[in-house]
Amino acid sequence: MVRIPPPGVYVPSPTFFKPLSPGAYQPEVDVATQSEHSVFLAKNGVHGLVLLGSTGEAIHLSRKERKDLLSGVRKSLDEAGFPDYPIMAGVLVNAVDEALEWLQDSKDAGCQWGLVLAPGYFGGAASQQGIIEWYTTVADKSPIPILIYNYPGVTNGVLVTPETYEKLAAHPNIVGCKMSHGNVSYHVQVSTSPEIDHEKFRVYSGFGQQLGPIVVFNAAGVIDGLASIFPKTVVRLFELASKRPIDDAAINEARKIQCRVSRAEEYIGRWGILGIREAIYRVVGLGNLEGGRAPLRGKIPDGAWDEWAHVMKAMSEP
Q: How far apart, in whole angstroms, are the C-alpha atoms of residue 148 and residue 200?
């Protein structure tokens, strides 16, 4: 029986790095802090993790580093009382054989699903039929179920269409998708399509700005970086938006939270991975301001955090 990911809020975790050691050419991965942050998220209601996706900088890690991180987080979650906690592992390569290698490593490390980035090296030259063939081949051979990951910003503008999702959703080993773009129409079309069995194919957005609207229209949830900093707030918004039947009180509370979330998401959009890591350090108290690998080393500019103080204060959690 193919396992379907549960609905909810997933965090695309940034990868934590130690400060650069004297004489080293790049910092080491900090598996201990990665594990501590993962357990923190699980304890605060987050429904699952995405490790080593785009936010996780998987392309900056060696194969051994990726395997050690995945297995280390799984071990820590098990020891903290979260056995079988949902983990999607990112797969960010174009070659089918290499994608399958990443998927096998992910399975061996205890991940239940692979979040597989659309092949975008050739950009617009990749037809929708070519995308269907590529994903079908990967899904046929993958040792774990996969989700389609469409992030045009890192794949030369490749955009998977609703018709392509409808065809791929019929594959028994393709169990969902993540859309990391602002085309809400595509989200809604795929989430509501009568051609898709939505008990077997989950639709997630990569943007918390869209959480309320798309979940109301049957999306499964979000894979959202802001939840790595303020998990309780984003989870609460999901709970309200997914309530059925939804009442006036829930709608009113959801509107207020969505406004705060959407404003805070502007910080994520402005500062990206560096901003997420800095916010985790300042709000959660994990990580440092020195880590990261080139070209994403260091922290956001001096004074930039202060410009967002009022937004972050509105998001503060007990």
A: 13
Ramachandran region, residue 83 (left: φ > 0; alpha: ψ -120 to 50; beta: rest): beta
**Amino acid letter for position 11:** V
Catalytic residue among 10, 135, 149, 186: 149
* Burial class of residue 123 (count of CB atoms within 10 Å of its CB; 0-12, 13-18, 19+): exposed
What are the beta bridge partners of residue 204? 178, 221
| pLDDT for 317 | 81
Is 178 assigned a catalytic role?
yes
- In the DSSP assignment, the letter for residue 197 is -
What are the strands, taking DSSP E only, across 28-86? 48-51
pLDDT in tens, 52-97: 999 999 999 999 999 999 999 999 999 999 999 999 999 999 999 9
Beta carbons of 127 and 153 less than 8 angstroms apart: no
Report the pLDDT averaged over residues 213-227.
Answer: 96
Point out the catalytic residue in the list 178, 186, 267, 281: 178
Tell me if 237 sits within 8 A of 254, measured CB to CB. yes
Cα–Cα distance, 248 to 311 (Å, whole number) = 26
Using an 8 Å Cβ cutoff, are 116 and 100 in contact?
A: no
Residue 149 annotated to the active site: yes
